Amino acid sequence: MTQLTLEQQLRFAAEQYARHLKTLGDTDYAVSAYQQSRNYVTVLKRQIDGEEKKVRELASIENHDTLFKPLTQGLSGEEEVDNVDWACVVQTGLLATDSLEYLRSNLEQAEKRAAKILQVASFRNTTQLELDEQYNQLFPCPTPSLPDEDEKENAVWEAENNFNILQLLVNTEEQTIKTLHEAHASLDIARKDFTEALDTKKEDVPQNGYTGMNAYSRARSNVYRSQLLMDQARRLQPAVGYIGTTQDDQHSVVTDVLIDDLLNDFVPQRKREHSRLESFQPKIKLEAELNAAGERLSKLKTELDLAKMSLDWKRRELQWIRVAALDRLADEVSAPLSASLANNISV
């Protein structure tokens, strides 16, 4: 086996070191991206646990012997107040069951994304370990022979930490905005279905009852989904505010209409029009939250760009010191490396 000369070892070390540095620069995003992806997975799992608990509780209520008493009272012309509670139990149970399928699908996709990012983060960590090991073989730490080297190393560590914090905040805000957009889309669809149901209810046509109930069902489903998404957004970013009592506004009128249809009654026109106006308010507030999130993201991206520039510069400063150290070793065997190594440094 051919024994490498010191000159060859130093040249190989210089080339490998440069490759490692480029890898680190290209994968700086991975550490914080993986952390954010795991945070999102945690949020989804907690929501799934909450919905599963809700389904179990509602199922136990539905199976109770007294479940049918309110409905029987209503159909017989007796007191009908409890009918609303019965309808709420049934419909909320259906909505929670449907939401579980939606959340589980999102969780599966989120875990796949997290697994892919983990591969990048693991590769980056391995590269960092190899780079540190390689350099420590040449210059065991601490390095009193290199006066500024330890100081520059600390500066790089602090810059990396600052960059990772800001990158995590940016990733979190981006996921928050994505979630808010999905909530906005669901609420917009719900508002259109709600309006269709109210308009259908105005016309005294028998077949419109079925069409109106379908529209109300779609509206409730999308309102429920928008609430889940808003909850996700607030868990990810506590700065996200509440958009109003969407559930109460939609819930009361939809349930009233459901019971009225069962009992061949009608929601008063004034109440329908009031509910139509109320359905616009959460959407307006949600758009304000989207604007606020966009402003936060813009500011964070500016700070992140500056942090990346600072990190790159501090890495270069550290490398200039290490290039000089390698040069001194190379001079001992008449093999100056500064030009070769400097050309290969890419951060």
Count of DSSP strands: 0
Q: How many angstroms does the end-to-end distance come to?
A: 35 Å
Query: What's the number of structural domains?
Result: 1
Detail the poorly predicted runs: 65-84, 246-268
Order of helices and strands: HHHHHHHHHH
- Count the DSSP helices: 10
Percent strand:
under 5%
Task: Provide a quick synopsis of the model.
With 347 residues, the protein is mainly alpha-helical. It has 10 helices and no strands.
Write up this protein.
By secondary structure, the chain is mostly helical. The protein has one domain (6-185, 224-238, 292-344). Helix content is 82%, strand content 0%. The protein is built from ten helices and no strands. Helix 2 (30-62) runs parallel beside helix 5 and helix 2 (30-62) packs across helix 6. The longest helix has 56 residues, at 83-138. It is elongated, with a radius of gyration of 31 Å. 31% of the residues are buried. The model is unreliable at 65-84 and 246-268 (pLDDT under 50).
